[in-house]
Design brief:
Structural class: alpha/beta
Number of strands: 12
Bound molecules: 6-O-phosphono-alpha-D-glucopyranose
Shape: globular
Order of helices and strands: HHEEEHEHEHEHEHHHHEHEEHEHEH
Number of helices: 14
Length: 367
């Protein structure tokens, strides 16, 4: 592909800004917005009949899969096992013949993910893959593919491929929920309508760039950062930390907020900012108590929330980033943007090679 940066400083910046458009294309591939249903696309296994789904992937694609687990289990009551591909391939776990196997890979060439796929093939499982490159090895060796319509991704740190993977997973969760009788026609319509709002809300969220750029200047002075979140914001916290360490080289950890007291709280002081991803949802108050624990130990909090969350948190923060109000199912898609922007602008301030960070490869085709 011949792709240029246009007016952007880096491919990563361009790819962040492309997200409303590519998320919209991807969702429209799977969902019929006019009729409020999942489309009748081909699947390698029947979502209504399988008893489990085994997901395996690496890096950012793995974290997309982890968000997918919450969606499949919550909306479709479909149990999901999820593994990092390098573990999956050697773990020798029992796999039920009634399950489906799902692999997620932007490039479709990651060695560990491909090896996991071949393991499942040997075990006789039907195989599906969410891929961005349709002519890839993983696509070829699958029984069916679910393409992400992100277009070529050049920046080593994945951005638009991630939100497109989330878009596919959410669409598949809706499809599975309908196939398993876990939503009625009205319920399906509501989920599809909520998903259809993702591009518009992502677009509004991009307007936070100015505030996030200022915050990034402060963040670039720290050596360690802790990211916290609950529910689907837990994988997002890990993704925020991954993005930050990949391109700014700041040491960052992503933790489930409820695990704070089981370890990371020992590290809290004024030298380690804590970034909390917490929309005002049913477990918001739980996360507020985690923030109180941080504040009581002199920790500096950066809160990423919505207007209601900002109003109800009553905690002093270093900064509060207020994202538009979003329906719960699209929250991981929309909240991906501020964490990507925060990593991006921090890296720009630090002067690192944003698109080609040291020691990393866009696709890891050797073990
Ligand atoms: C590398 C890239 C990551 C990516 C991971 C998985 O580590 O730097 O951005 O998430 O591989 O790649 P895949 O192509 O399988 O999604």
């Amino acid at each position: 592909y011949l792709v240029d940066k246009g007016n952007y400083r880096h491919f990563m910046e361009k790819e962040i800004y492309e997200q409303p458009e590519v998320v919209s294309h991807t969702l429209a591939h799977y969902l019929d917005f006019a009729n409020g249903v999942a489309k009748d696309f081909e699947t390698p296994f029947d979502f209504g009949k399988i008893d489990r789904l085994a997901i395996s992937a690496c890096g950012t694609a793995y974290l997309a899969g982890l968000v997918g687990k919450y969606w499949f289990e919550r909306h479709a009551r479909l149990p999901v096992d999820i593994d990092i591909a390098s573990e999956f391939r050697y773990r020798e776990m029992p796999l039920s013949k009634q399950s489906g196997a799902l692999f997620i890979s932007q490039s479709g060439e990651t060695a560990d993910t491909l090896a996991s796929l071949r393991y499942c093939r040997q075990e006789g499982l039907p195989i599906g893959a969410i891929v961005n490159v349709r002519e890839s090895t993983i696509a070829r060796e699958s029984d069916g593919i679910f393409p992400t319509l992100a277009g070529p991704e050049i920046g080593v740190a994945s951005t638009k491929a991630f939100t497109c993977q989330l878009s596919v997973l959410a669409s598949l969760a809706v499809k599975a929920a309908a196939a398993r009788g876990e939503v009625d026609a009205e319920g399906e319509k509501l989920l599809v309508r909520q998903l259809s709002e993702a591009p518009k809300l992502a677009n509004q969220t991009l307007k936070l760039a100015g505030q996030i750029e200022k915050l990034a200047r402060d963040l670039s002075h720290y050596k360690h950062v802790l990211y916290l979140g609950r529910d689907t914001n837990y994988p997002l916290a890990m993704e925020g930390a991954l993005k930050l360490k990949e391109i700014s080289y700041i040491h960052a950890e992503g933790y489930a907020a409820g695990e704070l007291k089981h370890g990371p709280i020992a590290l809290i002081d004024e030298q380690m900012p804590v970034i909390v991803i917490a929309p005002h949802d049913r477990i918001f108050e739980k996360t507020v108590s985690n923030m109180q624990e941080v504040a009581a130990r002199g920790g500096k909090i950066i809160l990423i929330t919505d207007a209601k969350g900002a109003k109800h948190s009553t905690i002093d923060t270093l900064d509060t980033i207020i994202v538009p109000d979003v329906p719960e199912i699209i929250s991981p898609i929309v909240y991906s943007l501020p964490i990507q922007m925060l990593a991006y602008y921090t890296a720009v301030f630090m002067g690192t090679d944003v698109d080609q960070p040291r020691n990393l490869a866009k696709s890891v085709t050797v073990e």
